[in-house]
Amino acid sequence: TEHIEHLEFQAETHQLLELMIHSVYSNKDTFLRELVSNASDALDKLRLETFRDKDLHADTSDLHIELEVDRDARVLTVRDNGIGMSRAEVVDLIGTLAKSGTAALRKQLLEAKAGDQQAEELIGQFGIGFYSTFMVADKVTLVTRKAGETTGTRWESEAGSPTYTIEELAEAPQGTSVSLHLKPSDDEDHLFDYTQEWKLREIVKKYSDFIAWPIRMDVERTVMEGEGEDKTEKTLVETQTLNSQKALWTRPRSEVSDEEYKEFYKHVSHAWDDPLEIIPMKAEGTFEYQALLFIPSHAPFDLFTREHKRGVQLYVRRVFIMDNCEELMPEYLRFVKGVVDAQDLSLNVSREILQQDRQIQMIRKRLVKKVLSTVKDLRGAEDKTKYWEFWKEFGRVLKEGLLSDPDNRETILAVSAFASTHSDSEQTSLAEYVERMPESQSAIYYMTGESRQQIENSPHIEAFQAKGIEVLVLTDPVDEMWVGSVTEFEGKPIVSIAKGEVDLESEDEKKESEALREQQEKDFAEVLTWLQQTLDADVKEVRLTNRLTTSPACIVGDVFDFTPMLERMYRASGQ
Ligand code: ADP
Ligand code: MG
Fold first, then answer.
1. Ligand 1 pocket, CB under 6 A
2. pLDDT for 445-468, tens place per residue?
3. CA of 80, nearest ligand number
4. Which residues take part in binding ATP (predicted)?
5. Residue 575 confidence (pLDDT)
6. 71 is in an annotated binding site
């Protein structure tokens, strides 16, 4: 009809769709997990919305997800009666790539060729969600009506087309249905035939068993009727619920398989990778709660952008309350995903209340301790592979806690790793550094800078290298922030080699050099005076030093001055 509008996908979105269509992504079954996951989110949102807004006209009497198969037409429909989407939301959420990504990732995406390794990795990183339907469908039709609204929206796109159509519907059932016009099944064994009842049953069981809402399907059953000669076969249709609906976090760890945990992780985190660590928690007593936390194996690409949301969901007695509950996880642990289910909160709880709530504060404290102790265990393990994976992905974020979480500073310091002059390739813990310190060395030395090369070439480091004293090489921007407030580790001061007087000599050496120094002071008195006068406007003091070996001079800051890099950062930001 004339009301059908043709709209274009964003360039990246179209490219992503192309990749999906030609994807050899190893596991096409995952499209159903994504649709069910979206449907489940939509039902959660509706329940919450009706709770908050008593005037919302919505039917919540039988919230569920439904699979429907038309075997002859080869159409599979996934339907929910959840919150639905307005027309604008369909265009926004479905028509464009919601997670717009960084410039670098966009570029990668536009360059990727369907079917190659890079494409697969991108798919995994993006966590394609809705678009994964194009792995199995030639055409996808979405019909939706937002709860409380009267008109609906129909969205449709064919695989490979740069456009989609959108149409207003005078009538539509509340919620969303997604119909997949399945590609012809080319495998003879029907292993990937998504019109097969057993196949759908298998996928739901495998990926979505824990979904709290019933996932229903009409199933045909053949029964015999009558007696003896009159016996006839009859086909009955019966609606079955395919999932057990058991919240995973309420089940003891011994009863849940790793596979189940992994699928749950993908659902709550909207991610496609596997978790690096699974952390089930249970607390009884005054503050009763259960939690199931995950440390992902890969950092999302937006971990350092403002949009990044903290990934812990809050439930109250099995009822979903909110995503990204910031009150439960500090910013520096924003990569942690999972759920916390609290017993004694009101279902009515708002963010404002949460901020004041003592129980939430207690829970948060324990979650933080538990996450940090998990990292500590990885660090202390015989096989440190997981620790290094963790550190590579999240070390820079965790170090933010050195500044923002003084209560846990010791633990964070203990699980942190730093580059140092001791090794070009391997990072060291502070404990290992201290172990290597010679008797005469009393401090832990570091230098911050933009790169290892810059630090190694700096004159500040010469005397340390000449004497074989190890220096931590700190090149992450976040290092600049915490070194100012973390002044010691296990009683050893942490000292910048770019600031103040650094005393590198033993007692014997001191006596020897004192005589030499006096002589030098006399010899160079005139030069020093001249330098001092000439540079008067720019420097506080000109003095002889024993810290240089090959460079003739270097500039040092006072103990309380900014480091050179921080000074540059401030200048760059116009302060
Ligand atoms: P994600 O779930 O990670 O946000 P998706 O691509 O799976 O990414 O979905 C994009 C968005 O589209 C969702 O965030 C949601 O807002 C909306 N959406 C998708 N499916 C549904 C649905 N069944 N009901 C309501 N909204 C939906
Ligand atoms: Mg999704």
1. 34, 38-39, 42, 80, 82-85, 93-94, 98, 129-130, 176, 270
2. 999 999 999 999 988 888 888 888
3. 1
4. 34, 38, 80, 85, 99-101, 125-130, 176, 351
5. 47
6. no
CA-CA distance, 58 to 167, in Å (whole number)? Answer: 22
Phi, psi of 304 (to 5 degrees): -105, 15
Ion ligand 2, residue ranges at CB < 5 A: 37-38, 129
Tell whether residue 133 is among the known ligand binding residues: no
- Asked whether the CA dihedral 13, 19, 25, 28 is positive or negative, the reply is positive
The tokens describing 76, both together, are: 């599979």
**Where does 8-147 have alpha helices with state H?**
11-21, 30-52, 87-89, 103-111, 117-126
Ligand nearest to the CA of 98: 1
Residue having the nearest C-alpha atom to atom 16 of ligand 1: 93
Distance between Cα 33 and ligand 2 center (Å) = 9
Confidence of residue 221 (pLDDT cuts 50, 70, 90): confident
Question: What contacts 369, CB < 8 A, 6 or more positions away?
Answer: 408
Number of helical (H) and strand (E) elements in the chain, helices listed first: 18, 20
CA-closest candidate to residue 176, choices 236, 95, 278, 87:
87
CA 395 to chain centre: 13
* pLDDT category of residue 505 using cuts at 50, 70 and 90: low
pTM, two decimals, is 0.79
**Strand blocks (E) in 297-352:** 311-316, 319-322, 337-342
User: What is the CA(489)–ligand 1 centre distance, in A?
Assistant: 47
Instruction: Write the DSSP symbol of residue 557.
Output: B
Predicted-complex ipTM score = 0.99
